[in-house]
Amino acid sequence: MPLPEKEARRAMFEDLLKPQKDIKLPYDAMVDATEGYSGSDIRIVCKEAAMRPLRRLMSILDVNGRETEEGMLALLKSM
């Protein structure tokens, strides 16, 4: 199976990484940086990118020892 062309990679990024609020994602840069990646590679990259904020939040919670629901809600609202 051939590797996805530029247009296909962009479509994958647009489908897998939806912009949040007023944040514009750099789809063109992502497409250029992933030349030679398979569709599976791109899915993994998107999954990892989507997990970063959650990992950062969990790290903050762990460091601050704020594992209560109220603490998590407060941190989520501040992000």
What does this structure look like?
The termini are far apart. The chain contains four helices and no strands. The protein has 79 residues and is mostly helical. It has helices at 6-16, 27-33, 39-64, 69-78. The chain is elongated and about 50 Å long.
Tell me briefly what this model is.
The protein is mainly alpha-helical and 79 residues long.
Overall pLDDT, averaged?
A: 84
> Distance N terminus to C terminus?
41 Å
Helix-strand string: HHHH
Q: Provide the low-confidence segments as ranges.
A: none
Structural category: mainly alpha
The percent of residues in helical segments reads 55-70%
The proportion of strand residues reads: under 5%
The number of helical segments is 4
Largest sheet: none
| Number of DSSP E strands | 0
Radius of gyration: 16 Å
What would the principal axes of the Cα set say about the shape? Answer: elongated
Keywords:
single chain, mainly alpha, 68% helix, 0% strand
What are the SSEs and their pairings?
Layout (H helix, E strand, L loop, with lengths): L5 H11 L10 H7 L5 H26 L4 H10 L1
Helix pairs in contact: 1-2, 1-3
